[in-house]
Amino acid sequence: MFNKIAFIGAGSMAEAIMTGILAKGFLQADQIWVTNKENKERLERLKNVYHVRCSTDKEQIVQGADVIILSMKPKDITEAIEGIKKHVTDEQIVVSVLAGVSTGYISEQLEKNCPVVRAMPNTSATIGYSATAIAGGKQAGQEHIRLVETLFQTIGTTTVVEEEDDLHTITGLSGSGPAYIYYFVEAMEDAAAEAGLKPEIAKELIIQTLVGAAEMLKNSDEQPSALREKITSPGGTTQAGLETLEKYKYQEALMACIKQAAARSIELGSPYQAKNDANKLK
Ligand SMILES: NC(=O)C1=CN([C@@H]2O[C@H](COP(=O)(O)OP(=O)(O)OC[C@H]3O[C@@H](n4cnc5c(N)ncnc54)[C@H](O)[C@@H]3O)[C@@H](O)[C@H]2O)C=CC1
Ligand SMILES: O=C(O)[C@@H]1CCC=N1
């Protein structure tokens, strides 16, 4: 399906995606080409660990790639596109995993008619468990979106959204989401340690509790609130715990967290809106 994929940006997200692709055998290592801004040591490491092709020669990276994955920070998008645009053709699919930046801006900077697709994965891609949301830009047809879905399905699930602007909320929800879970686990570990539990015992119990709750959410027809109520015996331990969370406004804090992350996505993308962007922020 794809003969060559080019990553422009060689950071943690690019690494997570390429790890997933390689683990699934979707592409061979020598079909994955990677470049970054100027960190040759980092490219050398990726080459040694994953046996992918690394180069600082942008033409060599981009030429003949079926898909070009933009995976730099939003602030670097303009310079990165400047570095590759003369090598990009209308036949290539450009995929951006950048928070906030619109497909319209990317098309405008590329000065090409190639399809641009925006994807928001998360780092669980590393083990094939990303929840990736995808939205097509103006030049992207259903066939391009489907091809991009096929690619991202190697690193987890894909969900196509009609409204590109929904990706801001999604970034705050599932793009950043794993970090909130890890933060939550840090607190559980600290609480266990303070109470004198051995870290390895606590870790095993915490992880299985998370996996079990996730599987319940996935497999049960019941709402999260109903599942919660089943655990909460009147006057019991769970009630005591939940009341404490309520006292600390836990739900309010989490909702504010997701809203703030989404607002930050809008903010990060705001310098990079296309002049004539149908997807311009309302
Ligand atoms: N880390 C995460 O969990 C997620 C990140 N993202 C998005 O992925 C993107 C990358 O994030 P990370 O991998 O965490 O960042 P990172 O800082 O680890 O990596 C960024 C990479 O871009 C390269 N770069 C910078 N300027 C460049 C240029 N002009 N030409 C070529 N390469 C250039 C850097 O050298 C570096 O290799 C961001 O836009 C972020 O919004 C999306 C979903 C999840
Ligand atoms: O923190 C960030 O900006 C990126 C986007 C989603 C996850 N990490």
From TrEMBL:
GO molecular function, one term: pyrroline-5-carboxylate reductase activity
Protein location: Cytoplasm
Residues reported to bind NADP(+): 8-13
Keywords in alphabetical order: Amino-acid biosynthesis, Cytoplasm, NADP, Oxidoreductase, Proline biosynthesis
EC number(s) recorded for this UniProt protein: 1.5.1.2
Top enzyme class: oxidoreductase
Pyrroline-5-carboxylate reductase catalytic N-terminal domain location: 4-100
Residues in Pyrroline-5-carboxylate reductase dimerisation domain copies: 164-268
PROSITE patterns named among the record's database cross-references: P5CR
UniProt cross-references to Pfam families, sorted A to Z: F420_oxidored (PF03807), P5CR_dimer (PF14748)
GO CC aspect terms: cytoplasm
Catalytic activity: L-proline + NAD(+) = (S)-1-pyrroline-5-carboxylate + NADH + 2 H(+); L-proline + NADP(+) = (S)-1-pyrroline-5-carboxylate + NADPH + 2 H(+)
Pathway: Amino-acid biosynthesis; L-proline biosynthesis; L-proline from L-glutamate 5-semialdehyde: step 1/1
GO BP term (any one): L-proline biosynthetic process
InterPro entries registered for this protein in UniProt: 6-PGluconate_DH-like_C_sf, NAD(P)-bd_dom_sf, P5C_Rdtase_cat_N, P5CR-like_CS, P5CR_dimer, Pyrroline-COOH_reductase
Function summary: Catalyzes the reduction of 1-pyrroline-5-carboxylate (PCA) to L-proline.
Record-stated family: Belongs to the pyrroline-5-carboxylate reductase family.
Protein name per the record: Pyrroline-5-carboxylate reductase
Gene: proC
